[in-house]
Structures are given as C-alpha cells and as structure tokens.
Amino acid sequence: MSDPYFIAVSAITIASAIIALEFRELIYGAIALAITLLGVAMFFVLLDATFVAMFQITVYVGAVVVLIIFTIMLVRREAWLKLDEGGRRRVMGAVIALAVIGLLGALLAGSSIARWQASEDVPTLIQIGEEMLTYYSPAFIALALTLAASVIGALVLAKVERDKGEEDEESSSEVGVEERREAGMEEVERKKEGEGEEGR
Q1: Which end of the chain is more exposed for a tag (fewer CB within 10 A), N or C?
Q2: Pairwise pLDDT comparison (132 vs 116), residue with the higher score
C-alpha cells in the first residue's frame, strides 16, 4: 500500500510545478515555484533527511525564489507576457518532456542504484558543517557572487527602464507642447485671414 503522505506531497508538488510553467503572471509563477521547492523539501523530510530539507528551504525558497520575485518586481515588462506560444510549441514541449522522462527512467532502471546500500557511517551535523565550510566553501562563495550579480543586474535594468520611461514622457510632453504651439499659430493665422477678408 502506498504512503498517503507521499501521494499528497507528490500531487501538490506536481500541480504547483505545472502552475509555475503555465501561469502568464510571473509573480504567481514564482510563488508556485516556491511551493514546488517546498514539496521537494517535504520529500527529504519523508526520507528522514531533515538537514537537507532545511537546507533546501533556506537556499532555494528563502534565497533563490525571493531573488526571482525581487527581480520581477524591479524589472517588470508586460511585453514578456504578450508572446503567443501557440499550441504547436506546447505539444512539442510535452513530447520532449515525456521523452526526457522516459530516457531518465530507462537509465535509472538499467543502473545499479536500486541495489545501492547506504553506508553505515552516518555523518553528524558537525561533520557536515565542517565539510561545507572547508571543502564546499568555493561552491558557496560562487553561489553568493552569482546571487549578488543577479541583484546588481536587476537594479541596473530597473534604472535603465526608469530612465527610458522618463525620457519617453519628456519627449511626449515636448511633442505635445509643439503641437499645441503649432495649432495656436494656425488659429492666429486663420483669425488674421478672417479679419483681412472682413476688412475687404
């Protein structure tokens, strides 16, 4: 008999992943992505890997998803949402996804992972922390620099978009002033012509 907790977490994770892909609003898609990553963390909890689950929530949900939402709120381009994907691209995407899933399933079925046994020496949290701060520290530094570069890039893009919007407003206002000035000059000329005709 299947575990009901596993089935419930699987359903929520798959549904939120589909919503993250299909929603046209980027904010809702990012929130659905956060729920998907929380579902992955729940899988680790079900596997009694609490530390990995907390790491998943802290790094991916607490940092990556928040960074995505932060970037969307800074650089919001509605033109991104007006692209028509069409039914043909959706069908091709579904076919490619099913092919990748089938290939990965065949590779896993033919591998020896099903016969793999865990080591009896279970590392402690102190050992894991020491490994993260020594052996895996370059990977964490690279991840931190990547996140910092993403934030700086979002700020630069937001500034460029804001400056461009202000220039467009100024140019439109200048064009409006010129049009009103030309319309006023034409009206004055018409009045002068009308007065000249009346004088004749």
Answers
A1: N
A2: 132
